[in-house]
Fold:
Amino acid sequence: MLLLLVGIWSFIGAIVPQGDAKTSAVAKWALANPVGESIAAIFSLHQAFSSPLFVAMILLLAASTMVCAWRRTKVAIHRSRLLREISDDDARQLAARPTFSVEVSAADVLEPAAAVSGAFRGMGLRVKERDGMVVAVSRPWAVFASPVFHWALFALILAIFAAQMTRSQGLMGVPVDDSRPLAAESYGLLDQGALYRFKRSPMAIRVDKINREYIIDAIDRGPAPTVSILRPDGSVAASQVVYPNNPMRYGSLMIHPGEIGLSPSFAIVSKEGKVGERLNLIVDVDETTASGTTAAEFTLGFPDPAEPVIRGSVTVPLNQLEVSSGSPRTADRRATFVLRPEGGAPVVAEKTLSVGEEIELPDGSKLRLLGVGNYARLSVVDDPSIPLVYALLVVALAAVSVAILGRQSLAVVAVRSDETGLRVVDVWFRDWRANKIRTEQAEEAVREALSVHATTNGDAE
Amino acid sequence: MNTEIMLMWAAVTAYTLSAILFVFGTVFKSDKVLNAGLWVALAGLVPHAVAIGIRWVAVGHGPYLGFYEVVSSYAFASVLALGLIAWMRPKLKIVGVLLMPVAVLMLGGAMLAPKSPLEITAKLASYWLTIHVAFAKLSYMSFIAAFALALLFLWRERRGEFKEDSMLSRLPSQAAVDDLAFRFIGVGFIFLSIMIVAGAIWANESWGRYWGWDPIETWSLISWIVYAGYLHVRLTLGWQGRKAAWYAAAALPIVLFTLIGVPVLYQSIHGAYLKGY
Ligand code: HEM
Structure:
């Protein structure tokens, strides 16, 4: 039932575009379906897979999986007990209400019990003969596959749910030759789980270079950044080229490559000519802007508190061809700076600089363009739950396979003589997977072993 | 016309002939004609397999990129499903009357589609692709087989007095057909599970997340739930026979929608296998 609900919900989630109201697909859909939109708003269907209703449904699903797993466990214990150590009394009781019975004359078979044993062995069952009865069983452990699967599924739902809270995932632009600490402010876009905490003295991610072409097995994997992970003391912990399907792993960190963009860098040169710290900014190719790139924002403060703080932005002018190609070269690049004081005063400067050129600032210092390089956008995921999730997936897969393919059969056979002195073989047979067909098969096998074609006279159960 | 296309047309011809033989064999209740239909269909697999192989070598990847390759491979799977059923229960080859026309339509459709190869890109180059796609095909093949058996079951039910129909009455019991459909769904479900898990692991390798509610992911989950539902109603509620057959017959369209409808209707990072990038 709940499975159905989640199914229907997923179905709705699949029909209604997902994302923020800003997403164009969502906006278009809302215009085209005003009625649908009001319903969607009530149930937050555009975030169908993170809405409270869905979460509640998943939790319910988890709960019902647990209940189901619990029931399956009890059933399995009961069945395995039957399969392993059915008592003589129970066996006798079952044989007393046979699923089918076969009459044998002495001439047909001397040892009906042995013949029937052979038939069940032929069906792949294990046979125990005792006290005039034959008990044939499938492997008892197979009955536990179903509960194991359901428990694994339950654990999986919980693990994935917990993983959402203990993982962080985001995009981080890192200029070549520069590094960014693993801290919230380094990310351009960050999705941080409620329980996820960044470390106090974090590792850092450095991009050493960008391999424009990176050909392996005749397929170009580039542009592929070479990425290093730095320990808090600055030493290199790991380093490799990352490209699609070849992410970098370090502990619970996983780093995938994203787009490559431009990185203009500048420094402030003091009146005395001292060059300050190099600042690397990042801009992306963007065909909707006049310059061809997005603008990177920065602020400049001055030692003299009387000077207002300056807000600056920088773009890199590109020509049409470069915009459409998407990956402009970095040599001989210029960058356009717009500087305006905080508080609405007129623009201090708007100027396009070549590398090495400067803009004079109000306090007499200068802003100097040091160069235009590349940056690599990396997708950085920190998710310690992955091994657990994978392990549960493997357990669930193995268990569901055994649950579906494994046999669960029990047969009890007793031989008696009827009033006329004829011997009758009573067979109680049960298969918990495909009862009807296996009962048919069992009867066929037993009759063949006894080489008789008498009519069935018992049809109990 | 190059060798590959010539072989493909040979397969189309064989499948068409086989479909006609199956229809005649069924209408005129001739086991001999049905047998001929089966052998012609199986013979058609040979040029079809060789053509797929030639293209595999030429484009450097298996038959999973582009409408032509994908649909042709599912036509192949349908004929293979027929072969499998006939091998397990020779009399049930009669499902060819359902499967072969479908295979002809699919392969014909594939022949009309553009055949320019799609390249394996860096984004696709992973051995998880092989696992993912192989199990996708295996699971779809199983579901197609179960679907055909379910229809056969329902057809015989409809005939009601099928005991008097010499053709249908010589087939294995309804219980056996029902059981075979169940077994195909069982293994198909296992393959589907492996396919989804392999897809999820690959998504984590490739995109850094194992599940993101991408339309195809959502729809695969729906397919999985649909067949999980089948197994549940069967094993816990004891649905067998007619009800189970209706279920199996209704389930396949949902799965096919996941395979073909989703990449066509949605803008998805996952649609490359039908539309290219
Ligand atoms: C009915 C369900 C599915 C089918 C038929 C299917 C089939 C395919 C095929 C043929 C490809 C190769 C071509 C392509 O890029 O599209 C592929 C790729 C892929 N699949 Fe699936 N898949 C299914 C479900 C899933 C699921 C549930 C996941 C993950 C949770 C997944 C993850 C992936 C990934 C990561 C790729 C690589 C695509 C890329 O990087 O462009 N797939 N799938």
Chain B touches chain A through 47 residues (CB under 8 Å). The two ends of chain B are 27 Å apart (CA to CA). The mean pLDDT of chain B is 86.
